[in-house]
Write a structure and sequence with these properties.
With 560 residues, the protein is α/β, with parallel strands linked by helices. It is 32% helix and 16% strand. The structure holds adenosine-5'-triphosphate (ATP).
């Protein structure tokens, strides 16, 4: 039975308000269309028409063609219908190699930019369990995601990987998400941003801990590791199989008591926790994939999510293992199909997703692959909202609101972070104090790009006997008096003082390179420092990190 609903091209034209008959195509138009694109023997079944969406069941001739053939013809279908390539998608039926559904979204509803301040946060004062709305899909429905899991909704907790090339609108996309997070009442945010909070400055007051610079990020990662353990333990003790909104509140339910006698314990709640690593190519390069990986795998059961943003989604920035451990992806325009393939699952690319077609010409356009959203949606483009200068004052308002009404860090997370980061955490400054005193642990640009092991130190054998420095070995070359060479006991004392000084400055991860000036001042060699660092680790003053030659200071000052 042929009805008007059966003709794809007719419906597409109707939606676009073109006169269907003018083109000489009525309900019989589909045959011609399919023939033109090389699918002559395919048949179109039930067709549904929405305000800006036509979906049609497609059946291919048995044994002749497969769903892959349809995928290949998508650009030609778009051409035949005179639509942009991203307007046509195909969802293969997982049960059949020759059936699927063609989805056509004729009008690009994303072409008009939407300013963020026109709508502002979607659920101000709500819970992080409500959807985080970051824009719209091309059919006008909300573009949203969740970070915490929900057993009843059948949704897993996830981390998020955000990628896009310069100018693709990744920065504004991040602001959409961050303003959503900060307008909820049961979540705490930590942020590492090597770009000096360029995009996020108005929101800083609401961020519990914000760091820039390589060493400070290392410290934050060490703190995240420690909090994972403490938080998982807390959730277990309070009988939560995974984090849920009730965990963030004071524990008044006997079902979630840590007391043996089964009465309500009244413990303070544990807000959801997000650790956000901007331009993570830098931090990943510094920290190594393994460190990130292990964190990503364990954090989800601790009521924590990682948000990781990357400019170049490729193997040299992040391993496939880490990428997969992160789960959800938000992909803005990318330079080429390889980058798209790295970010999006094959099935999503096959269904028509092609972020390389936008590159940086369509800022804000993105694909979102995330738990809780039906897979058919993954290949639908969305657009995040635009942040202009006029958004700043509303961002500041959101931040001020969050300072008063948002979640405070809980004692469990706070203690675990302080036990590792010491004063770097306990004396952290927030944006509402002094903009210029943010923890910039080293401010050393070089440090941001390369290995943390100084090339000069790479060859050092830590097992080597303590070398006797030759006189003059460490003396300044010109114009300064040859300094006094400290005795071994003095040297150790100076070294202990140096560690205390690093600690008081919040520089909680150190290596020989950090002692360069100190060596010059004290007439001691870097190889002596390397050995002394190792000894200090044996004594418990330092602890090894995942990076060779980098040591974490075990806080003494915070504990005192
Ligand atoms: N949804 C949007 N609609 C319209 N313009 C947008 C949108 N999102 C971002 N833009 C604009 O596009 C340009 C690039 O955006 P943005 O700076 O966020 O890109 P980016 O990917 O973060 O680039 P970079 O990595 O260089 O910071 C900016 O001028 C921004 O205002």
């Amino acid at each position: 039975m042929a009805g008007p609903g059966l003709a794809l091209s007719w419906n597409v034209r109707m939606i676009l308000r073109h006169n269907p008959d003018a083109a000489g195509e009525g309900t019989s138009g589909d045959k011609g269309l399919l023939e033109k694109v090389g699918l002559a023997k395919a048949s179109i079944g039930r067709t549904e028409v929405g305000p800006n969406r036509v979906t049609a069941k497609l059946g291919l001739e048995a044994g002749e063609q497969t769903n892959d053939d349809v995928t290949k013809t998508l650009p030609r279908i778009a051409s035949a219908l005179d639509l942009p390539p991203t307007a046509v998608r195909y969802m293969p039926d997982p049960e059949s190699a020759r059936r699927g559904e063609l989805v056509i979204v004729p009008r690009d509803m994303l072409a008009d930019t939407v300013r963020w301040e026109e709508s502002g946060p979607s659920h101000p004062g709500g819970s992080i369990t409500e959807p985080l709305t970051i824009g719209v899909y091309d059919d006008g429905s909300p573009l949203e995601l969740w970070l915490p899991g929900d057993k009843e909704a059948g949704r897993n907790a996830t981390h998020l990987l955000i990628a896009g090339m310069t100018g693709s609108g990744k920065g504004d996309g991040a602001l959409n998400l961050m303003t959503e997070i900060l307008s909820r009442t049961d979540v705490v945010l930590w942020l590492s941003d090597p770009k000096g909070f360029q995009d996020f400055r108005p929101l800083l007051p609401a961020i519990d801990w914000a760091v820039e610079g390589g060493t400070a990020t290392e410290v934050m990662v060490e703190a995240v590791k420690a909090t994972i353990t403490a938080r998982t333990e807390w959730l277990g003790r309070h009988s939560y199989r995974q984090w849920e909104a009730a965990a963030a509140q004071r524990q008044t339910d006997p079902k979630h008591s840590c007391r043996k006698d089964g009465t309500a314990c009244g413990c303070p709640g544990l807000p959801f926790h997000i650790a956000w690593f901007e331009e993570a190519g830098v931090s990943l390069g510094l920290l190594g994939d393994d460190a990130f990986n292990s964190i990503a795998n364990l954090a989800r059961s601790a009521g924590m999510a990682l948000v990781v943003s990357l400019q170049r989604p490729s193997h040299d920035q992040i391993s496939t293992t880490t990428r997969d451990a992160l789960g959800a992806r938000l992909c803005f325009g990318v330079p080429n199909a390889t980058a798209a393939g790295f970010m999006l699952p094959d099935s999503v690319v096959d269904a028509g997703a092609a972020p390389e077609r936008w590159s940086n010409r369509r800022p804000g356009y993105c694909y979102l692959v995330t738990p809780g959203i039906p897979e058919e949606r993954y290949s639908s483009p969305g657009r995040t909202r635009w942040f202009t200068d006029t958004a700043t004052s509303l961002m500041e308002t959101v931040a001020q609101w969050a300072v008063r009404n948002g979640a405070q860090v809980d004692p469990v997370t706070e203690k675990a972070a302080a036990s590792v980061a010491g004063t770097a955490y306990t004396q952290r400054t927030t944006g509402d104090e002094d903009e210029n005193t943010h923890l910039q642990a080293d401010g050393d640009e070089d440090e941001m790009t390369g290995s943390l092991v100084d090339p000069e130190d790479e060859g050092i054998d830590p097992e080597e006997e303590l070398p006797d420095s030759e006189p003059g070995d460490d003396a300044p070359m010109f114009g300064q008096e040859t300094g006094h060479k400290p005795s071994p006991a003095e040297a150790r004392q100076l070294f202990a003082e140096a560690l205390e000084e690093f600690e008081s400055e919040g520089r909680m991860v150190v290596g020989p390179k950090d002692f360069t000036d100190w060596c010059d001042r004290n007439n001691l060699s870097r190889s002596w420092v390397s050995l002394r660092l190792k000894e200090a680790a044996l004594e418990g003053r330092l602890e090894a990190t995942n990076q060779t030659g980098r040591w974490r200071i075990v806080p003494a000052l915070a504990a005192a």
